[in-house]
């Protein structure tokens, strides 16, 4: 029988952590994090990790599992998440899945392409070219892949070219031959919905709080580790800008504003990804207690509908 997954989604600063804790407590559940940054030890302030006190109340998984210089991929997450979900289920507990890396969630539910790992030498060379020439290059070496991606989606174009040059085989062919199947899950998505100006205000308040709590000093400590930060860790929003400001003090006065701008752009990108999922959006202005109650009612209705062979559609309340 498929394992139910309660997935708390939403852009950064939308209240995923608080809602996940409240629901996990009510459901006697454990929390599994799908986040490419909270996996790293020592990256606490800039990732807005749940506190040690919060983690002592409810078991949390896949937080602080890697050193900041270690690589971690969607494939790593899927492999570990499958194992942990099964263990939680065998303990008779429910699973609340949350986090800001939508690629991890998509890979868990839809399967993961197990192609060649990132080749940063190839990728860096490709990143030096303009998007138009990159797309033309992809059209010539892998027209099937080019037909499925926007010419403006440089990230996917570069990855497709990187795989082709690393393996000699088009990524579309490799996907057909090297995709791990998804787990047997019943996912149910919930999210806190905010008006955009309010969400942006929450983002700005979070950035101000992070800087007040010591983000600059935390970043300085990361730079003093015995090994260089992994590419993923060094490009994390908040840390990336702070590293640049530490290397170029002239950027320090504008640090807060730059992190806020980049975080707003990231939130927009997250919402684009989240539209792919059948999320039940709950108006955050209803208040915490009401939101939690509505979420519980919707979750239990979902379980009953699944048992009856029916499905709950995406929407909002």
Give an overview of the whole structure.
It is a single chain. The protein is an alpha/beta fold. It folds into two domains: about 5-110 and about 180-315, P-loop containing nucleotide triphosphate hydrolases (Rossmann fold), CATH 3.40.50; about 115-175, Histone, subunit A. About 55% of the residues lie in helices and about 10% in strands. It contains 15 helices and nine strands. It has helices at about 15-25, 50-55, 75-90, 100-110, 120-125, 130-140, 145, 155-165, 170-175, 195-215, 215-225, 230-235, 240-245, 255-275, 290-305; strands at about 5-10, 30-35, 60, 95-100, 110-115, 180, 185-195, 280-285, 315. A seven-stranded parallel β-sheet has the order 3-2-4-1-7-8-9, sandwiched between helices. A two-stranded antiparallel sheet has the order 5-6. Helix 3 packs across helix 4 and helix 6 crosses helix 8. The longest helix is centred in the C-terminal third of the chain and has 20 residues, at about 255-275. The radius of gyration is 20 Å and the shape is globular. The chain starts with a strand and ends with a strand. The mean pLDDT is about 90.
